[in-house]
C-alpha cells in the first residue's frame, strides 16, 4: 500500500520533471536523456540538445529563505576557478514557483560517466593511474586558489567535534585551503577526470576533499586504501585528521536525517581508529 509520504514524494518528482522541461525550453533545448535526481530529490538534471550543441540542464528548488548564498550560486561561482575539469555554466535563469524559488542552469557537458550511481562506493571505479594523478593535480591546483567563499568554518568544526568527541581532539584548524566541499563518487567522472556539483565549494581545512572522498570509500576497502595512498600527506596531518572526523560527523548527521544507516558502523569504526591514533 502506498503511503501518504510516498505519494507526496512522487508528486514532487513529477513536478521537478515538469520544471526541468520548462527550464530546457527556456534555454532553447530539447531534453534527450533520462532525468537524474540529486540528493533527496532537491535537484534534477538531464542532457539537452540545441542548435549550438548539447548542454546539461539542472534545476534546483528551495524555499525563499534558502534560495540565496553560496550553495544557491556555487556552480556558476565556480566559473572563476581554473585548472580543474568541471562543467562551465553558460546560462542561468530563476523564477518563483510558490512556495518555492527555482534556479535553472545550463552547463557544458563533460565526457565520461559518473563513477558511482551513489555517493558511497560499492564497486571498483573506472579510474586508472592517470585518473588518480589527474585528481591529485586538480585538487592541488584548486587548493591554491583564493576565494571568499566558505565550505566550512572554524565555528562549525569546533562545535561538531566537541559535540561528537568531547575533548578527545583539538578542533583548531591551522591551515585553510580551497576545497570542492562535497567530493564523493557520484560527483566524479571517469575514465577521464571530471568533477561535478560545485554548490558547496569554498575554504576548508587542508585535506577536506581527500577526507570526504576517503570516508565515501570506506564501503570499498580496496579503493579506500587507494585514496589513502594518493593523499596520505594530507590525511595523516593534524588538519587531515580533523577533516576526517568532521566529515564523519556530517555523514552521521545525514544518516540521522534519513540516509542509509548501514554505513554508520564503518564511520564509527574509522572515528575510533583516528582518535586512538591521536591518543598514542
TrEMBL record:
Protein name, as recorded: Phosphotransferase
Keywords: Transferase
Residues covered by the Aminoglycoside phosphotransferase domain: 112-242
Coiled-coil zones: none
GO molecular function, one term: transferase activity
Superkingdom, taxonomy of origin: Bacteria
Family matches, as InterPro entries: Aminoglycoside_PTrfase, Kinase-like_dom_sf
Organism: Nocardiopsis alba
Gene3D superfamilies reported for this sequence: 3.90.1200.10
